[in-house]
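Feature request, filed as a ticket because there's no other form

It would be nice if the structure record came with a short human-readable summary line next to the tokens. Right now we just get the raw output. Example of a typical job, pasted below so the devs can see what we mean:
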Amino acid sequence: MLGKRVLITNRGEIAIRIAKALNELGLVSVGLWTDNEPEAAHLEYCQEWVHLPGNTNRDTYLNVPKIMEIIKANKIEAVHPGYGFLSENGEFAKTLKAAGVIFIGPNPEAIAAMGDKAISKQWAQKAGVPVVPGSVGEVPTAEEALKLCQSIGYPVLLKAVAGGGGKGMRPCYSDADVKINFEAVQREALSSFGNAGLLVEKYVKDPHHIEVQILADKKGNVYHLFERECSIQRRHQKIIEEAPSPFIGTDTKLRTEICETAVKLAKAVGYDSAGTVEFIMGDDRKFYFLEMNTRIQVEHPITEEITGIDLLANMVKSAFGQPLDFKSQDDIKLHGHAIECRICAEDPITMLPAPGKIAGFETTFPQGIRFDHCLYPKFTITPDFDPMVGKLIARGFDRAVAVRKVRAALDGLLLDGLKTNIPLLKVILDEESFKAGHYTTHYIAGVKPQEKVAMAEDARTLMVRVASVEMGQV
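Raw output as currently delivered:
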């Protein structure tokens, strides 16, 4: 494995994280730069740089023919896709395999089995994994959807069979809602994922979004690295994650059950890399399979913090057929608690993307803070990429310590000249129900922390106005 040339087909903080893992393992990290981002931060960590011409994602990171040309011209022996872009593209994995290039991710068959929500649900049922009541496969028409909704009862969720990130999902509480939303969700799914197929599922009330990290080798061994709670979301997209789940808490029986269920599903599809099995859990503590992400997750650092296991390094080792860093499930222990806050270039009140340029960037963090990011002064965040620019991670002896440390870290993060969600994250971390660990995926809609941010911004604007008057500037 030493000296193998590995191309990173990604950018931003995840490309930096991958490069660090490759360099540590003695591999040659090869980064890409585009016309849209000629001074990308991740290049500093890569041993070699290659130009990927183009100004859009379609012309660059999603352009398989161009990437294959680069692979051939630069004698690339393996590819790490990170997350997003081509990370869950089974055809890309097949193309690499046919060219004799290692895909640092699961085999194409596992991607195909888990990449389509309808097919993955069928696999889950075959494996004896509980699934949310609803359609087994794609529902082609609104009329068929109505019949199914009436049989399983409202509320229901219309959900795209492909993709993720909260797109192509809409709850319905009546026949009228289904009639209004069915074609709208189809259009959104087609626009976002190139697939208009929809599922109809029972909408679980007051749900918790809980996912299990798994890691597998090429010899049929599958391990779990415990669970994460990802219920603090806006527009079905996560902004705060923690491990282990405060909802599961000290219920070791439930923790073992959900983690072993994830392993069972991964074994059923012949999984052989890092991946995440996502579940939805109601207040009755019953859980149902939601989907599987056949890639590394944004929130993987909190699992690394509570287990001490380097997921990226082990993902690479698995791809090359090397032994993992541990020999059995018993070697994987849970220590303390970790929390991750996603730092996004977005308005903290509307929670909509807010592109801009960083005028100043400073950090004064407490001891032990991890900040995975791609930032530097004068770095410009454009609408071309996801607004997430970094991840602030804190580990503590217990949850209270982790919350305190990450909250202090937010105070020590200065990003001047740019709107970010930092004020929103601070309000959430200070809010009593969050501090108590009592929240669901409806937290943002129910607690409305953005309203407190708005009040604070109004007060700040007033103080600036008063100061200007006193100084005779107005």
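Something like this underneath would help us a lot:
The first strand starts at residue 5 and ends at 8.
The CA atoms of residues 134 and 151 lie 9 Å apart.
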